[in-house]
Amino acid sequence: MEIGRFINGQTVSLVLFFIGLYGVLTQRNIVKTIIAVNMMDVGGILFLITVNYRPDSIPPIGHTDLARMADPLPQALMITAIVIGISVTAVSLTVFIGLFRRYGTADWATIAGRSKAK
């Protein structure tokens, strides 16, 4: 059995997504959770870009061969998703910095326990 045919963009994207999901479900550190959410985001973006890939397609700029032209809509939507993902990461890290300054820890359980006590 040839293993090379199973390694493609869709398989890699699913592996990234589920590694990120595992990280979200198991990590107690806030920074590691933010990184895991980013991995899930990258996995989703990679999947949506590669799901409609055709090897014979050409870029949709300056060509008149409409039958071979790649669909620009998924690419445009994924650029938007990348920008939104970066913004969510920046806001998440900003909130984390505030929590770390207030509670002095990066542990979810410790912060949840201290916030209930106050």
Radius of gyration: 20 Å
Q: Note poorly predicted spans.
A: none
How many runs of DSSP E, i.e. beta strands? Answer: 0
Counting DSSP H or I runs of 4 or more residues, the number of helices is 4
- Please outline the major beta sheet: none
Q: Strand fraction band?
A: under 5%
Rounded mean pLDDT is 89
Secondary structural class: mainly alpha
The CATH topology is what? Helix Hairpins
CATH C-level: Mainly Alpha
Shape: elongated
**CATH architect. name:** Orthogonal Bundle
Q: Approximately how much helix is present in the residues?
A: 55-70%
Element-by-element helix/strand order: HHHH
- The domain count comes to 1
Euclidean distance between termini CA atoms:
60 Å
Short structural description:
The protein has four helices and no strands. With 118 residues, the protein is an all-alpha fold.
List the helices and strands and how they pair.
Elements: H1 9-26, H2 30-50, H3 72-103, H4 108-117
Helix pairs in contact: 1-2, 2-3
Keyphrases for this structure?
Helix Hairpins, 118 residues, elongated, 4 helices, mainly alpha
Provide structural commentary.
This protein is mainly alpha-helical and 118 residues long. The protein has one domain (3-52, 72-117): Helix Hairpins. It contains four helices and no strands. The chain has helices at 9-26, 30-50, 72-103, 108-117. α1 packs antiparallel against α2 (30-50). The termini are far apart. The mean pLDDT is 89.
